[in-house]
Design a protein that fits this description.
It is built from 11 helices and 12 strands. It is of the alpha/beta class. The chain has 2 domains: 114 residues, Alpha-Beta Complex (Aspartate Aminotransferase, domain 1), CATH 3.90.1150; 217 residues, Aspartate Aminotransferase, domain 2 (3-Layer(aba) Sandwich). Strand 9 and strand 10 form a beta hairpin. It is globular. The model has no long low-confidence stretch (mean pLDDT 96).
């Protein structure tokens, strides 16, 4: 860092994104991107919007909000958009956390939570998962502070049922609960229907995964009108044009193409079950994922060895160093061809380790 860098950030450990290599062509199963391109409706809408890029984008995202309202059965003033769901999560830390309202989240979850807490100088508590890598709802019913839960969780892929999440939400009406549903479209139960019932719930989702728009950067939050106004106040105080015109148009197209969305989600679920079965047949322990990735470890090959051997053979997966998960690899679900190649390559690696 330079000698001018503010002391308030001296202990900040930045988030480390998944590897985006340029040295060769890989089967890329490390960043939970969709293996499918965006909807043709999204692509054509973005191309049309490109014709007017000399103008600022609509700061209210009016047309996108109207489309989202139809898609999710909400009002237009119950949704707000952001430059990816990461920006929305940062807004949530800014809006609903401080020294009197510390953040609370699992010790094994999305790696940006502690970064946002440190960035915003918010005290936080990390609650250990159970031995089976599941979240214990009782831990959060008793917790004091603003609760952040990724459901399904990452990198484990395990989801809690909505009924258990509702227990957490209703247990303390004076406490905010932020539900991060980045992977909800692959099998979990969304808490969006609960936003009309509880005014202490904000649900955050993204277009990056199930709607194949990771490169467009579009996230959103759904909640009661007062919470949305809180987020809007921060958004308009930082960058009211945070969603560009092409992304906004692509988002509308993606929401309208429901058949394409449903097909891709179905194929990813099918491919997930295929690769989970293949890995289990090879002796792997695989968590019960409800996401577009699987989380797996083998009793006789370390996570680091498998990661390096796969990378050497042109397949990228993601590994996390902390002791509880060091022997696991998180593997994005790709096309069936990708999954067949992965299974065959893993088989070769295991045979070579004997």
């Amino acid at each position: 860092m330079s000698r001018f860098f503010s002391e308030k950030y001296k202990n900040l450990a930045p988030y480390v994104p998944g590897e985006q290599p340029k040295d060769r062509r890989y089967i890329k199963l490390n960043t939970n991107e969709s293996p499918f391109p965006p909807s043709p409706l999204a692509v054509s809408a973005a191309a049309e919007a490109a014709k007017t890029l000399q103008l600022y984008s609509d700061p209210d995202c009016s047309l996108l909000a109207a489309e989202a309202a139809r898609a999710f059965g909400i009002s237009e003033d119950e949704v707000v958009f952001s430059n990816g769901s990461d920006e929305m999560l940062n807004f949530a830390f800014m809006a609903f956390c401080d020294s009197a309202h510390p953040a609370v989240f699992p010790n094994i979850t999305y790696g940006f939570y502690p970064v946002f807490a440190e960035l915003n100088r918010v005290p936080y508590t990390e609650i250990p998962l159970r031995d089976d890598l599941t979240v214990d709802p009782e831990d959060y019913i008793a917790a004091k502070g603003t609760v952040f839960l990724a459901n399904p969780n990452a990198p484990t892929g395990i989801a809690l049922p909505r009924s258990e999440l509702e227990r957490i939400i209703r247990s303390d009406p004076g406490r905010m609960v932020i539900m991060d549903e980045a992977y909800i479209d692959f099998g979990g139960e969304s808490c969006v229907p609960l936003t009309r019932k509880y005014d202490n719930l904000l649900v955050i989702q993204t277009f990056s995964k199930s709607r194949s728009m990771a490169g467009a950067r579009l996230g959103f939050a759904i909640g009661n009108r007062a919470l949305i106004r809180d987020i809007q106040a921060l958004r308009f105080s930082t960058n009211p044009f945070n969603v560009n015109a092409m992304t906004m148009a692509a988002g509308i197209g993606a929401l309208r193409d429901r058949e394409y969305f449903a097909r891709n989600c179905r194929l990813i679920r099918e491919n997930r079950e295929f690769i989970a079965g293949e890995l289990r047949a090879l002796g792997f322990e695989v968590t019960d994922s409800e996401t577009n990735f699987v989380f797996a470890r083998h009793p006789s090959v370390s996570g680091e060895t498998l990661y390096r051997e796969l990378r050497a053979r042109g397949i990228l997966v993601r590994r996390f160093d902390r002791p509880e998960t060091a022997d696991y690899n998180r593997i994005t679900v790709g096309t069936r061809e990708d999954m067949e190649t992965l299974a065959g390559t893993v088989r070769e690696i295991l045979e070579g380790q004997k």
